[in-house]
Amino acid sequence: MGNSGLGIRHKLYDFIRVADEKQLNAIYHLLQDQIEQTEEWWKDKAFTSELDHRYQSLENGSDNGYTLDELETSVSKFQKKRYG
Fold it and tell me: Is 1:10 a contact under the CB 8 Å cutoff?
């Protein structure tokens, strides 16, 4: 898997899944600030502003977005390209 983002994510997931209490606490305290920021995304003014902007663009028609069929086709093409 190497050190790609996906590879690292899988290694961390596997480690956390079997970690004992002491290991979990150590990981949590190391990442606590980032975890709490992620959990409180609604307090991030820039992020919520971007969501509001995108929503308004969809509502007023300046952005047509994608249909579910278009999204599924795009994901399918990406999966075939990436995984064969």
Answer: yes
> For the chain, how far is it from start to end, CA to CA, in angstroms?
16
Q: CA 74 to CA 57: how far, in whole Å?
A: 22
CA dihedral (28, 31, 34, 40) in degrees, to 10, reads 10
The SS3 call for residue 8 is helix
d(CA 26, CA 70): 43
Q: What is the pTM of this model?
A: 0.45
CB burial of residue 46 (10 Å; 0-12, 13-18, 19+): exposed
Q: Tell me which amino acid residue 79 is.
A: Q
What are the pLDDT digits (tens) for 15-64?
999 999 999 999 999 998 888 777 778 888 999 999 999 999 999 999 99
